[in-house]
Amino acid sequence: MPLRPLALVLVFFAFTSATIAQSPGQTGKPVISGVDSNNQPTLTPSPDLTLLNGNLGVGTTSPAQKLDVFGQVNAAGLCIGGDCRTSWPATGGSSPWTVSGTSIHYGSGNVGIGSSSPAFKLDVVGLMNASGGLCIAGDCKTAWPASTNPWTTSGSDVSFTGGNVGIGTSSANTPLTVATTIDNSNLGAKGLNIQATSNAVAGNIIPITFTAAAGTNRARAGLGLVVGSDWGKGNLAFFTRDASDGSAMSTTDERMRINAAGDVGIGTTAPATRLHVTSPYDTATVLSLVGTNSGSGTGGLYALANLLNTNTSANSVTGLRFQHHNAAGAPRTTGAIESSLSNSTAGSESSWLGFSTTNAGASSEKVRIDNAGNVGIGTASPVTKLDVTGAVRLNGPKSDAPTTFASFADITAKSLLAGGSAYWALREGATAAGSVHFDVYNSGAPKAALSIVQSGNVGIGAVNPTERLHVVGNLKVDGNISALYQDVAEWVEAAAPLADGTVVILDPSRPNVVAQATTAYDTRVAGAVSAQPGVTLGEAAPNKELVAQSGRVRIKVDASYGPIAIGDLLVTSPTAGHAMRSTPIDIGGVQLHRPGTLLGKALESLASGQGEILVLLTLQ
């Protein structure tokens, strides 16, 4: 009877050097005829047995193992690695598989081949061979489909020029469309994220750039992450390149930066405020606000810029501050415009606007406009439309016949008089350059109530005052009159021109005329000519002299008639225009001075000769 396959194998391994001839009647069965030079059996070809490269195939012509059997093997026993068994070992426990006819299945979880922790329904670690084909979602294939990869590979680069690319979407409508879900708690986990290939250090830039010239990397604009002091702090920088030479864009082309704190810098990489703008040009305008709104509203409704302070308390300030570097290079405030709500009650809001400048290193408010429109200069509490604390100067170009102060053109304003029918004007004089007139109006032509001319003379009712104070009309003084000089004089006609200090008498030949005294003890004594009286009465004329009758006046005296001591009474003397000491008359033992002759009392002494002394005029 023919040998079974396994018996034949055992015979093959049992004989290492023998020649076995095929028996008659065993056609197709292997015959071992000897061994080769490698001490391997030499077989006569047989349809059931193949020896190939030292591997023995039973039922296969291409054995891949030392013993490769295609079909069932029946053996009374089997040894594997020296472990010989006559039956299959028990598997232990119940099988998770369910047998249904010639099929088995498992529906409780995932199946792992080569893996003890399968993550999918069938999780195979290693290669899997399916000679009959492979089905995915009912689509069965016996070979991999032909590649439809739209990308073009060139070295380490890939490109796609066939249309739009969608990531997360199948309906891309731009060259690159990225669709993403939302995760506001981790923005880096969604959308488009650009990362460095290794941890960046402070100052490194991770950019997105834009290039106008095709086929080059010479970017002309871009933005990028500027790594802060550590990788957890990010700044966003914006770049533009102003060059036509094709040179590369670099960090020197940064134009704007938003730092990690949210401050925005234009022209600076270190913004110190919410908006920090600098210019490298001496003549450039740093910031321009341009609008085309044609609205005619008022109250700031059409403003180009809006500064909002969200503090709801009264007097919280919003404003603009101006700074300049001092000689030491430190920024110092040079001015400010500030505004605030003095009343923040809803529906009843009122505000003020202030202007500040710096003096001697300190900044303070100089001008304020309150909620009523009153303007205060030097005061924060103006009570009129213009309230000035301090001096006011008006200055402007002159002309041959000036009538106004530069652009003030008769500075007129309604007065506070009842009915508003009266008003006033401050103007430059039409008849004298440099003169100022304060006019008052009352339903008629203006009147120059007060005039100040270039010489400094002041006129009340006088347009061209000829004296320091020239009053047309009566003068009433409720109080004291203070004067540098201490006498009262009046203009009196004189018989001839008289020198200052001359003692005069009434001219007996003409009424209301004076002449110099020429005799002693003249009862017609009228006073003395004053050089510069404290108070002047009357009107000046070429033939008049200022004659003082009271007060302190320097007059001419002659001590040759006796030395003059302080307190001596003075009378006229024989010396023309001079006074002398009065000698009393003894009447019944009483010393009496002649009544009607006394000029005054000496306030200074003169021992001899002629001179001038200060005299207190007391005519009696």
How would you describe this protein?
The protein is mainly beta and 620 residues long. Among the domains are: 5-85, no CATH class; 202-242 and 250-280, no CATH class; 317-388, no CATH class; 406-471, no CATH class; 487-618, Virus Head Decoration Protein, Chain: A (Beta Barrel). 2% of the residues lie in helices and 37% in strands. It has a six-stranded mixed β-sheet, with no helix packed on it. It has a six-stranded mixed β-sheet with strand order 24-25-26-27-28-29, with no helix packed on it. Strand 42 (569-572) and strand 43 (579-581) form a beta hairpin. The longest helix has 10 residues, at 5-14. The radius of gyration is 63 Å and the shape is rod-shaped.
Question: What's this, in brief?
Answer:
The chain is mainly beta. Strand 31 and strand 32 form a beta hairpin.
Give a quick set of tags describing it.
rod-shaped, single chain, six-stranded mixed β-sheet, 620 residues
Secondary structure blueprint with pairings:
Layout: H1 5-14, E1 31-35, E2 41-44, E3 49-52, E4 55-58, E5 67-69, E6 78-80, E7 83-85, E8 98-100, E9 103-105, E10 111-113, E11 122-124, E12 134-136, E13 139-141, E14 152-154, E15 157-159, E16 165-167, E17 176-178, E18 205-210, E19 221-227, E20 234-240, E21 254-258, E22 264-266, E23 275-277, E24 317-325, E25 331-343, E26 350-359, E27 362-369, E28 375-377, E29 386-388, E30 411-414, E31 422-428, E32 436-442, E33 447-452, E34 458-460, E35 469-471, E36 487-494, E37 503-506, E38 513-516, E39 525-529, E40 535-537, E41 544-558, E42 569-572, E43 579-581, E44 585-587, E45 590-592, E46 600-602, E47 610-618
Parallel strand pairs: 4-5, 10-11, 16-17, 22-23, 28-29, 34-35, 36-38, 36-40
Antiparallel strand pairs: 1-2, 3-4, 6-7, 8-9, 12-13, 14-15, 18-19, 19-20, 20-21, 21-22, 24-25, 25-26, 26-27, 27-28, 30-31, 31-32, 32-33, 33-34, 36-41, 37-38, 37-39, 39-41, 41-47, 42-43, 42-46, 44-45, 46-47
